[in-house]
Amino acid sequence: MESIILVAKKNRLFIFLCILVLILVSITLCAPYIAPHDPLKTSMANSLQGRSSEFLLGTDNLGRCLLSRLLYGALTSLKMTFCLVVIVFIVGTTVGTLAAYFGGIADTIIMRFSDIFLAFPGIIFAIAIAGVLGPSSMNTVIALAVVDWVKYARVSRSLVLSIRKKEYIKAAKMGGAKEHEIIFKYILPNIIPSLIVMATMDIGTMMLEISSLSFLGLGAQPPTPEWGYMLNEGRNYMQTVPALMIYPGIAIFVTVMIFNLLGDSIRDILDPNKEY
């Protein structure tokens, strides 16, 4: 009876978090329609204003509406984050699956190549790559993808190695199934759920990585609103107008927390070995 209650509680948490994610995504997609002002329009006459009926969260040093920039910044931050997650998921899963299934020299080369990336601190390596490519949103995603694909490759490789020798794989080979059919029909459907759980849990981490690079000036460039860069813009006014850093910081914190809790809930529900 207690186990049933615990499962029900976890499912309620999962549903609640899904609703929060849907609300967050809906607000992000509707930003162009619900933002009260143009986030790029400057007005020095309205510089550093406090909260008012016209500017609900105040203005920044260039007189731009802070609420509008937060809403558009959510669109930029989430778009970059989901783009990064999709890239590392596809690249890492493809590389790891092929390396484990075919094995041999290709597997050895790929794994030693991944060891090279693991030998360096990930964020430092990403900063170096982004610095070479130049500051921009796309280059930030590319730099982080170069670093983050390794984890998905190694996890997918370990999962494929564990099922490659299963009886149903041998039966498919004896039945005349081709290599690509075995991979797409029998291997990927068995490893994708675990990788999706990992990707969901990584959304928050990757958002923090993108915000970190943007804070350093390597991500989205002005005047594009992005939460990490908004923190960078507000640090010069931290003592006089702390709201310029508080609001973007809260937005990052809440969003990362929601996605981390969502990932934990999905893991608890889908993990067949979990004891409730």
Explained architecture:
It is a multi-pass membrane protein. The chain crosses the membrane at residues 12-35, 82-103, 123-147, 240-262. Its main location: membrane. It is found in: Cell membrane. This protein has 276 residues and is mainly alpha-helical. It has a single domain, classed as MetI-like (MetI-like fold, Orthogonal Bundle), CATH 1.10.3720.10. The chain has ten helices and no strands. It has helices spanning 2-29, 31-34, 66-102, 104-118, 122-133, 137-163, 167-174, 179-215, 227-234, 243-270. The longest helix has 37 residues, at 66-102. It starts with a helix and ends in a 6-residue tail after the last helix. The model has no long low-confidence stretch (mean pLDDT 83).
In short:
It is built from ten helices and no strands. It has helices spanning 2-29, 31-34, 66-102, 104-118, 122-133, 137-163, 167-174, 179-215, 227-234, 243-270.
Oligomeric state of this protein: single chain
The biggest sheet, with number of strands, parallel, antiparallel or mixed sense and barrel status, is:
none
Number of strands: 0
Secondary structure: helix percent: over 70%
Tell me the name of the CATH homologous superfamily: MetI-like
Count every helix, treating DSSP H or I runs of 4 or more residues as helices.
10
Overall geometry comes to elongated
